[in-house]
Specification:
Number of strands: 19
Largest sheet: 19 strands, mixed, barrel
Number of helices: 2
Helix content: under 10%
Shape: globular
Order of helices and strands: HHEEEEEEEEEEEEEEEEEEE
Length: 323
């Protein structure tokens, strides 16, 4: 270090004599470097998305008991259409819905309209990053022509580094209900709170806490709902092809602990295999195959391990088309 310091002093002296000094040697004592930031974190997820990676392993790729067809298209003007039809193999009931999305980029507005076979019409208008960076405002209204029932919800959310908050106002004839949630994140740690307050009854109807930690290939999530239901999940990306998840849940006043294990294995770039099992010996298996770009096939089944010979098992088929 003494030799490097002498070199720097010599260069500074030569510069003082009018000579052009070329700083070829980078000296640690003379050059101040900005330390790397600690505690920096991207925008934390919304409260509803906490533990999402584990939820996806348990839910995506499984559609047993349902035959489903999804079709997604997009017009040249930018309007997106999504049509879905399904049939429940247990009840025989069929249903469907139509959804359209349109964006007005010059105004920063997004329009989303939905209709389903229960004859419910809904429209959602959202605006994001217009009044302030990270601020999202929305209005969601629905109408049921058969009964004349109407509902509306005013939505707001704000997110930036370390914080993600949201507040929704659900309008009702008796009195609005306030839904609010906040998530704080620091160095991978996440803490969240969610509530719902019924102004008509002046009563807190929802009171949830959550705590978790997430790294690149590992996520831990725990939550307490209304002080009565305790749950936790662990997600791990074991390798580039294998993902695993574990879920635990317990309700106060009950000696029964519910748990499940799930895994997803990517066979190749177009095919994946999913499997899960819970403490009730229900085994689910799902297979997803991309037949070609925009065409996806999903096969799934549910096996009752306690009653293998008694029947009651379920199968499902899903077909997705996107253009």
């Amino acid at each position: 270090m003494a030799e490097k310091g002498a070199v720097c002093e010599l260069q500074q002296a030569e510069a003082g004599k009018g000579k052009r000094a070329v700083n070829k040697v980078h000296c640690g004592t003379c050059q101040q470097r900005t330390p790397k930031g600690h505690g920096t974190m991207a925008v934390p997820p919304a409260y509803s998305d906490l533990g999402k990676s584990a939820k996806d392993i348990f839910n995506k790729g499984f559609g047993y008991g349902v035959l489903k067809l999804d079709v997604k298209t997009k017009s040249q003007s930018g309007v997106e259409f999504a049509t879905s039809g399904s049939n429940n193999t247990d009840t025989g009931k069929s249903g469907g819905h139509l959804e359209t999305k349109y964006k007005m980029k010059e105004l920063g507005l997004n329009f989303n309209q939905k209709w389903n076979t229960d004859n419910t019409l809904s429209t959602e208008i959202t605006m994001e990053d217009q009044l302030a960076l990270g601020l999202k405002l929305g209005l969601d209204a629905s109408f049921v022509p058969n009964t004349g029932k109407k509902s509306a919800k005013l939505k707001s959310g704000y997110k930036r580094d370390f914080v993600n908050v949201g507040c929704d106002l659900d309008f009702d004839m008796a009195g609005p209900t306030v839904h609010a949630a906040a998530v704080l994140g620091y160095e991978g740690w996440l803490a969240g709170y969610q509530l719902a307050f019924d102004t008509a009854k002046s009563q807190l109807t929802l009171n949830n806490f959550a705590l978790g930690y997430q790294a690149g290939d590992f996520q831990l999530h725990t939550n307490v709902n209304d002080g009565a239901e305790f749950a936790g999940s662990i997600y791990q990306k074991v390798s580039t092809n294998l993902e695993t998840a574990v879920h635990l849940a317990w309700t106060a006043g009950s000696n029964n602990t519910r748990f499940g294990i799930a895994a997803k294995y990517q066979l190749d770039k177009d095919a994946s295999l999913s499997a899960k099992v819970n403490n009730a010996c229900l085994v689910g298996v799902g297979y997803t195959q991309n037949l070609r770009p925009g065409v996806k096939l999903t096969l799934s089944g549910l096996l009752d391990g306690k009653n293998v010979n008694g029947g009651g098992h379920k199968v499902g088929l899903g077909f997705e088309l996107e253009a």
